Amino acid sequence: MHYEFKFNKILRIKEREKDQAFDVYSEAVKRFEEAAGKLYELLKKKEDLEAYQQSRLIKGLPVQEIRHHQHFVYALEKSIGHYQKMVANARSQMNFQQEKLMEKNIEVKKYEKMKERDLDSFMEDMKQKEARQMDDISIQLYMNRGN
């Protein structure tokens, strides 16, 4: 007699759902990392530009160049604001997908635990049947010896 878990199909479906949720979560993490990396680059560029402008101000800088730097910094700040929103959205999406993945993982664990308990119960039943068969064989052998 072989063992078969009665919810095996459901377990496979739940595992597939968990794998899909993991793939979606991985994509969300990738999008977050890309947006955060771009935001970091823009912040670093702004910091470098401001440091450069500060050093140039000490040496003396034409007004036209100051205006040019201000326009460039303004454009950088708009880009930074845009990427900050993108990072926030990507982070919330990543967190949402992480929660979904955790839920799917919990569902799979529940079915795996059910399967483990069911297998333990099956094995215990098999041991009991085997013990009963051994008792029956012993009784038959004893009865046959007596005759």
Description:
The chain has one domain: Helix Hairpins (Orthogonal Bundle), CATH 1.10.287. Helices cover 93% and strands 0% of the residues. It has helices at 8-59, 63-146. The protein is rod-shaped, with a radius of gyration of 34 Å. It is mainly alpha-helical and 147 residues long. The two termini are 34 Å apart. It contains two helices and no strands. The model has no long low-confidence stretch (mean pLDDT 93).
Helix- and strand-based class? mainly alpha
Mean pLDDT: 93
CATH topology, by name, is: Helix Hairpins
Tell me the overall shape: rod-shaped
User: Strand portion, in percent?
Assistant: under 5%
Concise summary:
This protein has two helices and no strands. It has 147 residues and is mainly alpha-helical.
